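In response to reviewer comment 3 from the previous cycle, which asked for concrete evidence that the modeling workflow produces usable outputs, we include below a single protein chain processed end to end. The sequence was submitted unchanged, and the resulting structure tokens are shown without manual editing.
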Amino acid sequence: MDLLLQCALNFERLIPYQYHMIIGRKGKTLDFTVSFDKADFHHLAGLHKLRDNVRFQTGKRSDIMQEILEGRLTLSTAMQSAFFHEMEPRLSPLVELERFLDNNEIIFRYNSKANIFSAIKADYLLQNDLNNMPIYLFLTQRSGENTLGCRTFFPKSEKDYAQGQPRYTLLKKEKICLTNSETIIQYDRLTPKTNIEKMEH
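The workflow returned the following structure tokens.
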């Protein structure tokens, strides 16, 4: 299957879900919810890198994803750009974004302008390994909403975006299906477990 189409299909499956996470550091906790929107896909897939393709640059971002889903924009279209090499490394990790988020080995860092070399504006930086490669996911507060969106997602290269960032520990993670309100608790260090050994003999 066309790799760009596979990325779009896998991202589309995430749209009905949210992830609610609680993280902690030095006795203090933070919590946030990650949501997904078709418009997010454009930047995650690196389509903004294709500076010589008018359609990818000027089209409405949610429409671009829809055109990819419908097969009207393809990987071959993107490969015609002289800048495709800048976008290409993002595609294989993006196929596995859900696996990245479902994994409980995520390292959380709060982005407080420590990376002076980077133009990325984000509220949280998540790091995890996919296929033995460190991958970064930057999260940003959505305008007028109480959820965070996925701003950008790419493998580690020569720059260490985690350098100088305070590290947080995952305390609880829930995956919420918005269509039926089902909540899957993926990780929980906060809720005490029942001690069944106290049962009377």
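The helical segments are 3-14, 41-44, 54-58, 61-69, 75-79, 84-87, 91-95, 97-102. We consider this sufficient to address the reviewer's concern, and the full set will be provided in the supplementary archive.
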